[in-house]
Amino acid sequence: MTAVLDDRLVEAASAPDVRKAVAAILRETFDTARTRAARRLDAGGDGVEVARLYSAAADEMLGALWRLTTETLYPAPNPTEAERLSLIAVGGYGRGVLAPFSDLDLLFLRPWKRIARTEQVIEFMLYVLWDLGLKVGQSARSVDECLALARTDMTVRTTLLEARSLAGDAKLTADFIARFRAVVTKADPRPFIAAKLEERDLRHQKTGAVRYRVEPNVKDGKGGLRDLNTLFWIARSLAPESPLGARALDDLLTARDRRTFEEAFDFLWRTRAHLHLTAGRAEEKLTFDLQPEVARRMGWRGRGDEPAVERFMRRYFLVARDVGALTRAMSAKLEARQQKPTLSLSRLMPGRKRKLGVEGFIKEAGRLSVTGPDVFAAAPAKLLSLFRCADEHDLDLHPDAFSAVSRSLSLVTPSLRRDPEATRAFLDILAHGQRPYRVLTLMNETGLLGRFLPEWGRIVGQTQFNMYHAYTVDEHTLQAIGIINDVWRGKLRDEHPTATEIVHRIDDFEALMLAMLLHDVGKGGDRGQLEDGAIAARRACDRLGLDPRRTEFVVWLVRNHLALSDYAQKRDVSDPATVRAFTRLVGDPERLRTLLILTVADIRAVGLGVWNAWKGNLIRDLYQRTEGVFRGEDMIHADPLDDYPDLVARARAEGAGAVVVSVHGSEEDERAATRVAVAARDRSGLFVDLADALAAAGADVVGARVGTAPDGTALDVFELQDGGGAPYGRSEPRRLTRLIEGLEAAARGGARIAPAPTVPPSPRRAAFDVRPTAIVDLDESPDAAVVEVSGADRPGLLADLARVFADNHLSIRSAHIAGFGERAVDSFYVTDPKGRKPSPGPRLERLRIELEAVLDHPDRGGARLSAPVRASLRDVSEVGRSWRDRPAGPPPVSSRPEAR
Fold first, then answer.
1. What would the pLDDT profile of 818-827 be if each residue is shown by its tens digit?
2. How far apart are CA 70 and CA 76, in angstroms?
3. How confident is the model at residue 118 (pLDDT cuts 50, 70, 90)?
4. How far apart are CA 150 and CA 170, in angstroms?
5. Neighbour count for residue 733 (Cβ, 10 Å)
6. Is residue 884's pLDDT more than 50?
7. DSSP at 398
8. Where does 495-607 have alpha helices with state H?
9. Which of 520, 563, 722, 759 is deepest in the core (most CB within 10 A)?
10. 3-class SS at 138?
11. pLDDT reading at 678 higher than 60
12. How many angstroms separate the CA atoms of 884 and 581, rounded?
């Protein structure tokens, strides 16, 4: 094969356009070899095996190009010392592994100064590689230049650690590698190790410091391939003469850790190779649109209600967790050998150990450790006490202790889960700890949290295939725990003054934190998230030894943890009927206070930017109205027209008017949306025309309220954001001016505004199959039918929905708009032409069918990578439809003997 290829290339050297002819031949052979690698991957080949096949394909292509260039085009049969030249693979390519679209990292090595022939060889080769569409990272240096840089530049040293000869002067390459390894062997390894760990930390900050982001970066993210490569580089720096640093890895990792390392390395390489081939480019981020196809290619299948993509992503995050554990284990060995620089003064004092008052626990190198692995065998409850001790002394866990816990998980038996000492330690960490997020995260990564609390174990690494949640279920929950702790300590006073004030009035802080920890353990269950969550919470509370009253309180919080958010965002909180219904559900001021804190933390922990002042206003408004009912205050149905007398008067005189409404108040009251009010003579289709005008202007409606005076003057109030989620018009005031003009024209019934052009959904959004749902509820409000719809969000959806209501001769009294990632969930209070609640019958069933047809709007996007996958369903609504169907539950909870 090599001889045939060389002969073809020699013939191409006489072609009119040598580069073009050579590139065509090399492309053919290179593509053939890459196709063989891809077929091996599809056949189930190991990730590292396939990566080596891609590397071998590049080796063959580069070798043939080198021979043509140096022997035919620019020959030097008897090269002088200056004409000696070699080609070396460096970086990841030097290790002999490549992803399908990886860069080629090359070093052209010469003995000393540049000469014309050397430049000609390098130039021709690079141009051919670029003609092939390859991305090449290349350098051309002398031996002395390489060695000088390797002594001072840790990035250069890293690339050269994996230097591998490809072609050219073998003696030049061998001599250089020997001299380079001598430099590395003599050098103090600590600066290099420190540079690699600092580089890793900066990389994590750039790609997201959390390991469990639902769209991870396979190469550079926390727990990704680069973290394993960092361990490789450190090992090579300690044993540069050993193949792939094997001797150092054997010394630094146990046999079990080595197996974990190899399994993780192979899984991540398989994932990366499939990711590249799915995307058709060097894509390293496992985005929503790519995840289903990568999962399919890797052979994952759905199980029950858990789709293949969620099972695959759970596996991914468990591997990422293993990578973190490997990093800890290797760090422990490096510190023990004084090869890893440390920041703490106590860690600079080798051998210094201090007892902490608990038998078997010591402070070593500034962290909490154990005297030996038998500590837990003698007293398994110390598995929990260890983490309480870490929190009390504000200590990180020493990697030796981390490993000891992981290897002692078999000691967590049913009897330990009910042991009073163990459960007390666990509740102290959860509800009374200084830094529960950090400590519970450590427990989760050792595997102890899921073993001690089996309900938790089933959500570890669990993902939800939707655009709403930014983290895995367990990471989301741990962040929510940390947020409650921050609220209690006053760290979020400026953002949440109401929550900061009432959190200290909660009687049972342990119940709040336990409910927060358990609030999502029902996700993926057969009975639905809330019911399965309540069942699991009862089981966990009974095992932890809570008394029946407190157990019922935790169960109620888990079952109803969406209630405050749902009522606030999906119902008219100015309607006394809504407030009364919510008050009946809550039943007690203590529940109300606890539910508020839980709701704030739950929404904030979904992801960056999900909580905003608009949602905060809605939730706080409902909280205050409900609190007023508990105090015996009268409820009055607020008339929105009363808040805009000047605008209403102008509309009566001129036919219509529109204004931007300024909102004043505390920092917490500042809105994340622009409020626009429109007043006009009511008529059929008014709301449709206004919605069309908003859609045409690119305004995203996040809230709406409609009111009509007895004389027929209608008022429509909208809360608007731009496409980036900022208040509409903040960055471009002229857009807001044009919008006001367009709304006034639409309100007067001027020329119909053409619907906004249909924008194809982005590939990420098109990956989701969002099932449309429409529900008509005649029991929720005494004056109107409440229609709730849910479907794929898109520009112009509100206008299309409003048009269906108008076509069915129904008036919209109020609209409540909410979005959950790719899903829109909108609620409308509607009346008939006489202002009365519609009567049940075929007409409302026809309305429901027409609304679902609008929600099931066909995509006009391009071809997808794979068929859309059903988005993980956040309940369309628990309001009205199912609250009334639930048992009333326990009597209101107001106090407990043990307060925080």
1. 877 778 889 9
2. 7
3. very high
4. 21
5. 10
6. no
7. P
8. 497-502, 509-518, 529-544, 548-559, 563-570, 576-586, 589-604
9. 520
10. strand
11. yes
12. 9
Task: Provide the pLDDT for residue 872.
Answer: 61
Helix (H), strand (E) at residue 181:
helix 170-186
Q: Are strands 656-661 and 823-831 parallel, antiparallel or unpaired?
A: unpaired
| SS3 state of residue 764 | helix
Sign of CA dihedral 325, 327, 330, 335: negative
Residue 293: pLDDT over 80: yes
- pLDDT band, residue 881 (cuts 50/70/90): very low
The DSSP line for 33-62 is: HHHHHHHHHHTT--HHHHHHHHHHHHHHHH
- pLDDT digits 0-9 by tens, 303-334: 877 889 999 999 999 999 999 888 888 877 77
Residues in the chain: 900
Tokens for 354? 């201090």
pLDDT value of position 209: 63
Q: Which of 508, 503, 501 is nearest to 484 (CA)?
A: 503
Identify the CA nearest to 520 among candidates 111, 102, 872.
872
The pair of structure tokens assigned to 379 is 């007293």
Residue 666 class from Cβ within 10 Å (0-12 exposed, 13-18 middle, 19+ buried)? exposed
Kindly report the average pLDDT of the chain as a whole number.
87
CA distances to 447, 465, 697, 832 from 789, in Å: 41, 20, 24, 19
Q: Report the distance separating Cα 729 and Cα 723, nearest Å.
A: 11
Examine the pLDDT at 286 and tell me if it is beyond 60.
yes
Check if the beta carbon of residue 56 is closer than 8 Å to that of residue 40: no
**Coil, helix or strand at residue 20:** helix
Q: What is the pLDDT of residues 716-773, one digit of tens each?
A: 888 888 877 788 998 889 999 999 999 999 999 876 666 556 666 666 666 677 888 9
Structure-token match 């969002």, residue found: 770
DSSP character string of 432-491? H-S-HHHHHHHHHHHTHHHHHSHHHHTTTT---SSSS--B-HHHHHHHHHHHHHHHHTTT
Strands, sheet with 713-721, edge to edge from the N-terminal-most edge strand: 656-661, 674-681, 713-721, 700-708, 811-820, 823-831, 785-792, 773-777
Contact present, 762 and 723 (Cβ < 8 Å) = no
Please report which confidence band the pLDDT of residue 618 belongs to, taking 50, 70 and 90 as the band edges.
confident
- φ, ψ at 726 (rounded to 5°): -95, 160
The one-letter code for the residue type at 866 is S
Residues 704/816, Cβ–Cβ less than 8 Å: yes
CA distance 577 to 429: 41
Contact of 627 with 619, CB cutoff 8 Å? no
**Is residue 889 over pLDDT 60?**
no
Give CA–CA dist 720/732, Å, rounded. Answer: 14
- In the beta sheet, which residues pair with residue 819? 824
Average pLDDT rounded to a whole number, residues 861-874: 58
Tokens at 532, concatenated: 């399965």
Nearest Cα to Cα of residue 76 among 171, 170, 169:
169
Q: In the β-sheet with 353-355, what is the strand arrangement from edge to edge?
A: 353-355, 361-364, 367-370
Rounded (10°) angle between helices 529-544 and 548-559: 160
Q: pLDDT band at 447, cuts 50/70/90? A: very high
pLDDT value for 894: 40
Measured between its terminal Cα atoms, the distance across the chain in Å is: 77
Q: Give yes or no for a contact between 497 and 504, defined as CB atoms under 8 angstroms apart.
A: no
Contact of 631 with 548, CB cutoff 8 Å: no
